[in-house]
Amino acid sequence: MAIKKSELYSSLWQACNDLRGGMDASQYKDYILVFLFIKYVSDKYAGTDVGDIEIPEGASFTDMVKFKGNPEVGDLINKKIIDPLATASNLNRAELPDFNDSTKLGDGQEKVERLTNLIAIFENPALDFSSNKADGDDILGDAYEYLMRHFATESGKSKGQFYTPAEVSRIMARLIGIDQAATTESTTVYDPTCGSGSLLLRIASAANTNVSLYGQEKDSSTSGLARMNMILHNNSTAEIVQGNTLATPKFVDANGQLQTFDYVVANPPFSDKKWTTGVNVDADPFGRFDVFGVPPHKQGDYAYLLHIIRSMKPTGKAACILPHGVLFRGNAEATIRTELLKHGYIKAVIGLPANLFYGTGIPACIIVLDKENAQARKGVVMIDASKGFIKDGAKNRLRERDIHQIVDTYVKQDFSNPRYARLVGLDEIARNGFNLNIPRYIDSSEPEDLQDIEAHLEGGVPVADIDQLAAYWTVYPTLKAALFQPLRDGYMALTVPATSVKQTIYEHPEFTEFMQRMADHFALWRAEVADKLKHLDPKFQPKQLITELSEGLLKHYTDLPLIDPYAIYQILMEYWEDVLQDDAYIVAADGWLVQTHRVIDVDKKTKKQKDKGWSCDLVPKALMIKYYFASHQDAINRQQAELEGIQQELLELEEEHGGEDAAFNGFEKINKAEVTARIKEIGTDVDASDELAVLKRWLALSEREAKLKKAIKTADEELDGLVYRQYPLLSFGEAQVLLVDHKWLNHIQSAIEGEVERVSQQLTTRVRELAERYARPLPEIIQSVDVLERQVQAHLRQMGFRL
After folding, report:
1. Could you report the per-residue pLDDT of 392-434, keeping only the tens digit for each?
2. pLDDT tens per residue, range 91-121
3. For residues 293 and 298, what is the distance between their CA atoms, to the nearest angstrom?
4. Are residues 189 and 297 in the same domain?
5. What are phi and psi of 583, to 5 degrees?
6. Phi and psi at residue 380, in whole multiples of 5°?
7. Same domain, yes or no, for 410 and 505?
8. 608 falls within a domain
9. Containing structural domain, residue 467
10. 459 and 395 in one domain?
11. What total number of domains does the chain contain?
């Protein structure tokens, strides 16, 4: 049975938890990723003659398993596994971690247990990468991204710069246009500050063919990580070198000048204050500062940008992540910025949300560079995407809808929303002193909700406020008249009480007609998608599937009134992340075969296993009950409702008769034994007849409660057995209906209906807000205050107070 991606990630993260102790995430990530590398290349290449990696005899993961529990396990891993693998894979051994380092892994038995547990975790069958690109989807790559994101999150502000968030990398790939280009293996992509290589790989994955990758990284351990990363992602021919890019660039041509590339991407360290170390700024042998000037010695952002420009071919494209300061800072940076704009190299500036990157919390931007036809460039595309994100723990994260909107706006040159994006002419930029600060050109702030003084004084709702709802009045042309009537010039009165606004809107024929249109609109997409899903090719690719589904849904909802197509798109993408992705991978591996499995809970301390019953990932038990055993569940629900009623009656009986001289007074604990004993004690005492009646009533209810609990338990067990035995009887067609129609599409439909309802509710909320805001003009309020004041004074006089 296929492993769920979420379980794969969980297994890998468990390995991280077992390594915590003497290391922070920036250190133990190296150990985990080396293990991941060993496991991958062993599964993929051990015992084969294919691929670019040779596994030396005795140096596979299977050989490492033999070291479990050995007192010399750390030394054995170093000498028998890491050293020969590093040589065979052309890795620099000095850049790889020491598995016998007691300062990080502990001494003696602690180290033995830690490494033994780590090996055991990677023995999990879920981590079998013998065919890691199952159905064309890079499962290992996704797992790697998952780990890197978590490592970066835990590494802290100063140590998380080795990773560029995948969402940003995906945007950059689309901005430089590599996904639309006619690439070949000779197409070159370069990252001068490549870190762990995640940005380079994301660009490569967006290309339509294999491309040649080049990267340089200053930190030795991180450059080693990048090399392994390339191999893990089937890019073993990538050239990753270690060194300071600004001081000693390693990619130079035969003339000693910087090698140039078709595409350059980078996420350099922000505002590097030591960038001049080892750099001859006055006579740079590579001519990086000859044309545009020398950046400030304590501000290295433009140093990296100028290195990128010098590394671009005459038709080269580039994208670089930099802090917002590069857009508006003065002096030397202003001079460089001005010259870059005059040369036409800056094609676009995209402002990103703050707190997006792991090395810093400050807002950043993507600067897109393009040398092709640069002299003819008359403007700069500016996009303010700073408000599109979701909170993810301590960081912010771009949603799928945010990524898509940025890319669509740039690629399609869609400037229909000037509060989000504009093509700003160079003449306008020149009038602003070549300052590129985005707020100078795009006002993305929310309009202030102004209070109308005249409306507060004389009543009525301002027509200006009503007109701001023009998008709704276009869809519901007569609804406006049903809600408002003229009062005086510039003001209208509500025709219904504020409490009736929602009812008036929801019962209006134009509103109900619109809601029906939306329901019919979804039904069209649903019918098409349901047929597609039920006829999936046995070897379908889950990632390709979600791309087709999501792009089709986005297109289906584009240009509809009131509805934000990106909000609809996000609904599907979130469901993919939470549920649909795992289901798709299971179907891709096992087909429509619905299988149950035991749920085993492992005690964290004792490691003992406990059987928690059974479950089914594809078709949940609740779904089976709903469509096959609803009557059984209804019967149980009725019993459960009766049980809850009895329990409530028991509680009320105990509370009512729990005081002094009451039936339950003096009971240490109210239970069957105590109540029965008290009834026997009372016997035939006539004076205690009321107490006896209460106790007998309690006893009867308690016995009924016990019988119901037993009956419900028995019925639950019987239903559980019925459902369990039904799974093997499901035909593929029945499984498809349950999964596609009732699980996937019903959920998506419900979520989209909720979004349409939310949009409609916004109109209701705003109309009520305006009505209530101006419901009572100031003279009426003053008169009410006068009346209340006189009433208070009269009461005070009656109480004998002198005013």
Report:
1. 888 899 999 999 999 999 999 999 999 999 999 999 999 999 9
2. 888 888 899 988 888 888 988 988 898 888 8
3. 15
4. yes
5. -60, -45
6. -125, 130
7. no
8. no
9. 450-582+737-776
10. no
11. 4
